[in-house]
Amino acid sequence: MVENPGPLASINGNPASNFASCKYNKTILxxxxxxxxxxKSGGGKNGFGQWFTREPIxxxxxxxxxxxxKPQWKDANGVLTGESPIESVYAVRIPKGxxxxxxxxxxxxGAYLGGQDIMQIxxxxxxALRGAQVIKEVPIAKR
Length: 143
Prior knowledge:
By secondary structure, this protein is mainly β. It is built from 1 helix and 9 strands, in the order βββαββββββ. The strands form 3 sheets. A 4-stranded antiparallel beta sheet has the order 1-7-8-3, with no helix packed on it. The chain has a 3-stranded antiparallel beta sheet with strand order 2-6-9, with no helix packed on it.
């Protein structure tokens, strides 16, 4: 059991809980970094999210299974709280000096496994960072 899940536990939505065993490392970027995320197509704000990988994913199935991205998110009462369509993969430039948190993908229930050997990166509100930029959108394979 993790007794001190660090700074992410105090952020709304408790991003620490999306890392396996709430384990992650904080890094301050010493140079710009290109990260990748899957999401709804259409560019614009769809290109930004808070969860990334160092390499682009190749399919919707890979995102769902390896990165534990459910199509729908429900609360403890079964009420729908959000959806996660996977239609495109985005390359996003995160600027030098940004705090990023990297660790293994946490299990989200059912087939949404994640795992200790699959790493993800959390960036808090990258759309508000000066210099953050969506640089590419590519439609993703459905299978």
